[in-house]
Write a structure and sequence with these properties.
Length: 107
């Protein structure tokens, strides 16, 4: 009985990481992305980019990824993320120009 509880508790962090990598709802998410810039929606340079796309996030302090591409094969060739930040985001419906509701992940 003690062993089964320990096993369940050990598996919970793995479940949390797998859920983060899959995406968390919203517009369809492809999983992990590599973004050249990640910052708050209130950051002036990111707010300008959002404004050019007609995306209104005023009053929301969410992380936004700019110039993102999906990571197809983690850590292999060009499939990894070099020179950017690896994130998973709830909304990537803007063709990789911006992704909204991002959480940085370490692979």
């Amino acid at each position: 009985m003690v062993f089964s509880r320990a096993l369940i508790l050990a598996a919970l962090p793995l479940l949390a990481v797998a859920t983060a990598i899959q995406g968390r709802g919203g517009a369809p998410s492809s999983g992990a992305s590599c973004c050249s810039t990640v910052g708050s929606a209130s950051d002036p340079s990111i707010a300008k980019e959002l404004g050019l796309l007609g995306v209104v996030l005023s009053g929301l302090d969410v992380l936004v990824g700019v110039d993102c591409s999906p990571i197809t094969v983690i850590g292999v060739g060009s499939g990894g993320c070099s020179g950017g930040t690896t994130v998973t985001c709830t909304d990537n419906s803007h063709g990789g120009l911006v992704e909204i509701g991002c959480v940085p992940i370490t692979l």
